[in-house]
User: Fold this.
Amino acid sequence: MPGDRRARQRTGAGVGLLLTLALAAVLLTALPKDHDREGGAACPARTVRSWSADTQLTDSFAAYGDDATRTDDWTGGDGTHSVRLPDGRVLWLFSDTYLGQVHGPPNPVGESYAWRDTTAPLVRNSAVVMRDGHPQLTLPAPLFPDPAPNEWRWPVAARVEPRSPGSAESVVRVLLWTRTAGAYPWIYGVPTATEVATLSLPDLRVESIVKVFDQQLVQDPSRRVQFGTTLVAVGGWTYVFGGNDAQAAARPTSSAYVARVPEGRLGEVGAWEYWDGAAWTGRAGPRAVLGDGRHTGVGSAFSVVRDGGTYVLFTMAAGSRGLTTMTSYWACSPVGPWHGPARGFSPPLPAGQVAAYNPQTHPALGGDGRIVLSYDVNWLDATATSAAWNLSRNVSLYRPRFVTLRLGPPPR
Assistant:
């Protein structure tokens, strides 16, 4: 746990397996009239029609992590999110992150893997700046300090928006999940709150952190909701999606929720509205928009894009296939109804007891009908001391991998 270095290394893939065994979720835009257009020209059904491994982007992060010219930068992390900055740079945000030195192969047991020492620093979050398609700089880490002893912050979705509505000055707003150390089954922390950080431009200095959705009074941790796993900006609103951690309590699936905030006001508590099943309300009592507790559902990690008038959600598949297989849903509105899951696909994974999780789209890198999607990889036995060893003996196990997708109508 945060106060104990060893325990922190065992659970260093924190966001990892919590998200692995969770399922995924949805992005929604509240336009009720869209319900009348499902499957039509304005909102056609969409699914993944083709995909291919993006080895160039995957190798770019591997090369950056293996670079030994610096000893205080990113060498591996999960919880991968990104946002394009006004000057063309791309800011990458990671949850639990290894820093320090990477050594070339062979590793201490003679395997042909680059490796890091098991005493390498681990921080709860980091940010990497990319320019011209290549990671170039790790900001001082952790970028977002722990709010209190035994608590930490994981950054999730982010966007550039006006400092206030109508302002000519832009800032970066980053959604944060605050979690508190807990006992089994909450080995990756108990959900505590959703916060919003404001970063200045162009220097990316943390100006403020505001708590926008506090869940400490919800007695059952598995029913606590955290927002920000993905967001979409449409029509002057930012739609922010989140999920609960029902999977951590051994329930079949978790559920997805959605909130909306006027552009330029993500950091204002009073500006948030939540979908209660019938309308948007300022009361903090959201109702799930996806998840039946059996065959459909979401977890803490998922991503949504808008393809024309259609919203497409990417998630890990339900059941045991969720360790290797991604699937998708589609809808015409952020509040649903959501259709799916569609037939899944299994991206490349390294050998060993590993799992894929946290599928995230990266609009800053797509275009021409292409969608760039990352997924994180983790060692499955995250509760054992062998987990930290395996992530260290083979540094490639705890870095994002990428695929490129193309959407189209479902096969008949």
